[in-house]
Amino acid sequence: MATVNGLVDAAVSEGADLLITLSTPTLQAALRRVRSIPIVFTYLADAVAAGAGRSNEDHLPNVTGVYTASAYDEMMAVVRQVLPSARVLGSLYVPSETNMVFHKAKLEEAARKVGIEVVVLAANTSAEVADAALALCSRKIDAVCQMPGNLAAAAFPSIANAAHKARLPVFAFQTAAARTGAAIALARDYYEGGREAGLIAARVMRGENPASIPFQPITKTKLIVNLEAAKASGLEIPDSLVKRAEEVIGQ
């Protein structure tokens, strides 16, 4: 965070016309240190929880952008389709990450609607993830459904490895996770978030006031199936789901 604060200060002192932030922590650093320069955010779960405003329309006058609310209800439908008898899902989270606290509540809410319990274990640093993942997979869970977050994304291979050792399928919400061990990823893609944020930044650079631009959610969802990871965990993915996928790995 000290490095992030220094980068924000350097951008201001060097006369930046606009800041684009690419995570919750970088947005929060910019909010603390910038009042007059426009800020456009992307790659975060909830800008309101990060402190950028009270709602999508009622926000700080110099801030706007795009947020990524993961497809939890849609994922529960997929889990029910491939694991109809599932009763308990497991996930790791980082209590100090604002976005992961948000994701935890959303995952639990969506799971509760379909009669599924979520078991959550905390990991605070990358060094803790491997042991926390092993502990999680030793619980009586039917699968890992890993909520997104900065630490979880960086350490996802450790989570996937623990799940594979326990022969548990992994469901995830980020594109990269499907390539590093998740059997199914249902992603609100970062590419789309970056594209939408770039379009908003262009509007601001042309003179539009950020205060008049509501925060916007990404709504496009990408289904990715990794047949190799599914096979390794003993998960059979129906052909109907494979045909729906925008990308199939290991076909």
Explain how this protein is built:
By secondary structure, this protein is an alpha/beta fold. It has 2 domains: 2-69 and 189-217, Response regulator (Rossmann fold), CATH 3.40.50; 72-187 and 222-249, Response regulator (Rossmann fold). Helix content is 43%, strand content 18%. A 7-stranded mixed sheet has the order 5-4-6-7-8-10-11, sandwiched between helices. It has a 4-stranded parallel sheet with strand order 1-2-3-9, with helices on both faces. Helix 1 crosses helix 2 and helix 5 (126-137) packs parallel to helix 7 (156-165). The N and C termini lie far apart (42 Å). The model has no long low-confidence stretch (mean pLDDT 93).
Count of distinct structural domains: 2
Q: What order do the SSEs take from the amino end to the carboxyl end, as H and E? A: HEHEEHEHEHEHHEHEHEEHHE
Count the beta strands: 11
- Proportion of β residues? 15-25%
Average pLDDT metric: 93
Q: Which residues form runs of ≥5 with pLDDT under 50? A: none
Oligomeric state of the chains in view: single chain
Report the radius of gyration as a whole number of Å.
19 Å
